[in-house]
Specification:
Length: about 525
């Protein structure tokens, strides 16, 4: 049906051309209209700038015509957001404009309600600084790591081949290669499309162990070692849970499980591909940190860590306690917020399961600080991070770097059609339909991915300069302000609790954290 208008125009042009001897001049106008529309449709299919025009020739031009006639309509398309979060109203517009190197300045002030609850801002300085270089890097790899990695401050979050098209994966990875940042594979495995352009890879290992599983779906040390030693893979990430659906496991709808996906993952074609909610390689915190050490050894000493959305807080504390007792440390931990997106999750999980990013990040940071481990373990953050201010906010709460998914999807051309689970993505981003996916031009979109990354970090350098700082790691909780009511403003330092180094080991005076630490058991995920 996507091509019906073009087919109709071609047929119309042919019919009126054949009837012209009988209709005479009456056939000229309809023939001209059909011929012009046919030419537009053919051009749409050949151009590479807009995937949606390649997938919907002729029809997609209605959108762009409306944008030209009324700029307000263009802003509606760019600024509309499915969840209506106040601080997220214009992030899509920013991502598009930066990806395309368009002017991202706005007249007539902020769109936000500055007197609304939870309005946030960065406290600037009377003596701002100039930050000349903005290729901010974070060294990842603790004392037990033989191959540390210099990671960009801003990277592509986990999105699997299977949930995204082959062309989308290749464009993301090529953009990462151009910009010198990392691309997380998602739990769908390290596919040939991740390898095609040579961008740095963070290999995510989920409970399905795709790419390193045996015939029964269990972890295979031999297959993992064979893949992990590839020099393109820089870090290994064990996925414990995902913010949008923690405790649910991963789901790739059967409509998107093509023959190629089935062969890559080792699952039946056309059947929902479900990753179990829990891992089979370990069942206790101590076994988990031992699994981390096993992966580090099998990979030749590459940084190994894990990703999770905080749930039962004693469970995370139990992992920290296991690291203290065994001396085996993760090189990094990624905290995923429940506000993160996904293409397939039950509504109740999306809305009401999992800890929001900021709360989970503060808790995880406090546990590591309180256990005396924070200086040896890096923390990443993911969950609706698009703008430079989003990055600054989580850095102030303890993150060392950020991962983003939706911002890079916007850079690819995602229009939030909410059709990810149907295999009918209009822009070729979230589909396994080869014809729809082919509409996404890899070189063009890779350049946009690179520009979005570069422009966002440049904007971050301007923010920290305005705050009078020299580097993002200098941002403190006291510099992010929040309106908590119509008459009260507090900084993050006043809103959140921050523990001192080693405080949990010495016996914290903070009853909440002391109780959680007492409940944590390195030998069980059950509360003590």
């Amino acid at each position: 049906m996507r091509y019906y208008p073009l087919i109709a125009c071609i047929a119309g042009a042919i019919v009126f051309l054949l009837l012209s001897p009988w209709l005479g001049s009456a056939a000229i106008l309809p023939f001209a209209v059909c011929a012009i529309l046919t030419a537009i449709g053919i051009h749409d299919m050949q151009q590479t700038k807009h995937s949606i025009r390649r997938n919907y020739p002729i029809l997609a031009n209605i959108r762009f015509m409306l944008e030209e006639v009324r700029p307000e309509i263009r802003q509606y398309f760019l600024e509309s957001d499915t969840d209506g979060a106040p601080y997220n109203r214009n992030t899509r517009a920013i991502a598009y404009q930066r990806a395309k190197h368009q002017l991202d300045r706005r007249p007539f002030g902020t769109l936000e309600n500055v007197y609304g609850d939870q309005f946030e801002w960065l406290a600037h300085s009377i003596t701002p600084t100039h930050v000349e270089h903005y290729d901010f890097r974070v060294p990842v790899g603790g004392p037990q790591c033989a191959q540390p990695y210099s990671l960009s401050l801003f990277n592509i979050s986990a999105m699997s081949f299977g949930s995204l098209s082959a062309n989308a994966i290749m464009a993301l990875n090529k953009g990462a290669k151009l910009g010198g940042f990392a691309h997380d594979t998602g739990e769908g495995g390290y596919s040939k499309y991740h390898q095609a352009n040579g961008g740095d890879i963070i290999w995510e290992i989920g409970s399905g162990y795709f790419g390193c599983r045996d015939e029964k779906g269990h972890f295979s040390p031999e297959r993992f070692a064979a893949a992990a030693k590839n020099p393109q893979i820089k870090m290994i990430e064990i996925k414990l849970s995902q913010g949008a659906k923690p405790g649910h496991g991963g789901v790739l709808p059967g409509a998107k499980v093509s023959a190629e996906i089935a062969a890559t993952r080792g699952v039946p074609q056309g059947v929902d591909c479900v990753s179990p909610a829990g891992h089979s390689a370990f069942s206790t915190p101590t076994e988990m940190v031992q699994f981390i050490q096993q992966l580090r050894e099998l990979s030749g000493g590459k940084p190994v860590g894990f990703k999770l959305c905080i749930g039962n807080r004693w469970e995370f504390a139990a992992i920290v306690k296991a690291m203290v007792e065994t001396g085996i440390l993760a090189d990094f931990i990624v905290i995923d917020g429940k506000e993160g997106g996904t293409g397939a999750a039950p509504l109740e999980f999306t809305d009401h399961v999992g800890t929001p990013l900021r709360d989970g990040l503060v808790f995880a940071n406090n546990c590591l600080v309180g256990a005396g481990l924070r200086d040896r373990i890096r923390i990443g953050a993911s969950g609706r991070i698009v703008t430079a201010f989003d990055i600054a906010r989580v850095l102030s709460l303890g993150a060392d770097w950020c991962n983003a998914a939706r911002g890079f999807m916007f850079a690819l051309g995602c229009v939030q059609s909410l059709s990810c689970h149907t295999d009918r993505c209009p822009t070729g981003v979230a589909t396994q339909d080869p014809r729809r996916g082919a509409a996404l031009d890899v070189p063009d979109k890779a350049a946009r991915v690179h520009r979005f990354h570069d422009s966002t970090l440049q904007a971050l350098s301007e923010l920290i300069g305005a705050a009078g700082l020299a580097h993002p790691n200098e941002i403190k909780p006291s510099q992010i302000m929040m309106r908590t009511s119509l008459s009260e403003v507090k900084s993050f330092a006043d809103i959140y609790t921050f523990l001192q180094s080693g405080e949990l080991l010495a016996g914290s005076a903070n009853k909440t954290y002391a109780d959680i630490w007492a409940m944590a058991d390195a030998q069980s995920f059950k509360p003590a």
